């Protein structure tokens, strides 16, 4: 990379054309004056710059471009190169470009470049599930964009920060981030409905995971209204799917089925296999709850096949429903196989939320079978994960479940000890 001062540019171009200072200056400017300009001891006026641009056969813009402008231009090119490597998930190449951009952008105080550079670095870390590293870069990006007072970009970054906490299984922290994004959104002079929809969608997702049925449904319904207004069929289909999921959570199965049918009609016009897989999964849930087991199985198997073909992280949600299906038809061995597959898949991909959910199902099954020692082992495994996820309410529930299971075994002192631990967590944290 070559960064030149104005004088260095003039000297370089003059020598490329084998011109002397006298030949370049002609009758317009003296040799001495040109020498001062080339050595950075004098600055030419715009009239002289136009003359020099014409004599040297270059655009005036090239001579006017400052060192900072040149660095910015190079950095923008590197950012484009970086985006390609992010898509290819080439972490070493991304890190090399990141360091190069950071070096020059820091030197010339290019805040926007630094913000984008850190955002891209975070993206590749997210792809590699290096969430703490991603958070570090996200927070740097937030710092630069905040200093620029770019509120819309700040909101986008806070949403992404919330998404990382969601991936880490820290849902209450994620929810606070989305609320923070909502607060910043209210400061926008010109509202961006798509951005608002993104915030509310994520808020609904957190409430859904935290089993706050009322708020999960409330925010999902708001998202549907916004996305319908935006007239983006793909977004609207996905928001209908989210809304249907919250209706299922609230056991409003008839309304959920109607919403899914509407989403399916829209989907027939859009080639979105991922959303189609989620719709199939939710149809399976509804038919399972209404006792239409053949229909449920048909939709769940289709959802499973589609998710496996696309290698989706959401596969466990379908395996959990198949577990329920096999239990309902009395095939316990097949049910447990689906459940164990879901937990194993989730462990391999570090999907903590699904591991916890799978262990929850497993524990209930073992307690129903009066296999209390095995149930205790599963609950302890669940607790060890929840303690790292900072999910107080779920952790308290797990400890209470552990205490109750010890009681069923007749281990009263152990049960009391665990109940005290649950109380301490609830009161202190």
UniProtKB/TrEMBL annotation:
TPR repeats, residue ranges: 277-310, 316-349
Pfam annotation, one family: HTH_3
PROSITE patterns found in the cross-reference section: HTH_CROC1, TPR, TPR_REGION
InterPro entries the UniProt entry points to: Cro/C1-type_HTH, HTH-type_regulator_Rgg, Lambda_DNA-bd_dom_sf, TPR-like_helical_dom_sf, TPR_rpt
Domain HTH cro/C1-type: start-end pairs: 10-63
PANTHER family given in the database record: TRANSCRIPTIONAL ACTIVATOR, TRANSCRIPTIONAL REGULATOR-RELATED
Protein name as it appears in the record: Helix-turn-helix domain-containing protein
Source species of the chain: Caloranaerobacter azorensis
Lineage: Bacteria, Bacillati, Bacillota, Tissierellia, Tissierellales
């Amino acid at each position: 990379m070559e960064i030149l001062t104005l004088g260095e540019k003039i000297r370089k171009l003059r020598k490329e054309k084998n011109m002397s200072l006298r030949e370049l200056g002609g009758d317009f400017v003296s040799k001495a004056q040109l020498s001062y300009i080339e050595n950075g001891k004098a600055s030419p006026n715009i009239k002289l710059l136009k003359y020099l641009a014409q004599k040297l056969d270059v655009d005036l813009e090239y001579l006017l471009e400052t060192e900072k402008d040149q660095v910015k231009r190079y950095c923008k090119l590197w950012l484009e190169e970086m985006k390609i490597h992010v898509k290819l998930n080439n972490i070493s190449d991304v890190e090399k470009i990141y360091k190069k951009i950071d070096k020059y952008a820091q030197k010339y105080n290019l805040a926007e470049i630094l913000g984008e550079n850190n955002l891209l670095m975070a993206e590749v870390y997210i792809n590699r599930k290096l969430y703490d590293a991603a958070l570090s870069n996200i927070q740097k990006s937030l710092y630069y964009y905040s200093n620029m007072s770019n509120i819309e970009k700040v909101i986008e970054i806070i949403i992404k920060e919330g998404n990382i906490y969601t991936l880490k299984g820290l849902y209450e922290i994620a929810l606070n981030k989305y609320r923070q994004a909502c607060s910043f959104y209210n400061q926008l002079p010109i509202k961006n409905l798509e951005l608002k929809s993104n915030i509310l969608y994520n808020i609904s997702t957190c409430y859904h995971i935290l089993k706050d049925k009322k708020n999960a449904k409330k925010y999902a319904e708001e998202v549907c209204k916004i996305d319908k207004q935006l007239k983006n069929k793909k977004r609207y289909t996905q928001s209908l799917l989210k809304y249907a999921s919250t209706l299922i959570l609230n056991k409003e199965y008839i309304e959920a089925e109607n919403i899914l049918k509407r989403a399916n009609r829209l989907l027939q016009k859009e080639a979105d296999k991922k959303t189609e897989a989620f719709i199939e999964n939710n149809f399976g849930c509804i038919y399972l709850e209404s006792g239409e087991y053949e229909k449920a199985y048909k939709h769940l198997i289709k959802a499973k096949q589609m998710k496996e073909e696309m290698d989706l992280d959401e596969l466990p949600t379908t395996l959990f429903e198949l577990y329920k299906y096999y239990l309902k038809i009395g095939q316990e061995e097949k049910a447990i196989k689906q459940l164990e597959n879901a937990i194993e898949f989730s462990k391999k991909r570090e999907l903590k939320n699904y591991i916890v959910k799978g262990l929850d199902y497993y524990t209930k099954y073992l307690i129903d079978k009066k296999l209390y020692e095995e149930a205790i082992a599963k609950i302890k495994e669940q607790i060890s994960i929840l303690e790292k996820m900072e999910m107080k309410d779920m952790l308290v529930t797990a400890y209470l479940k552990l205490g109750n299971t010890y009681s069923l075994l007749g281990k009263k002192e152990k049960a009391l000890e665990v109940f005290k631990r649950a109380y301490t967590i609830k009161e202190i944290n």
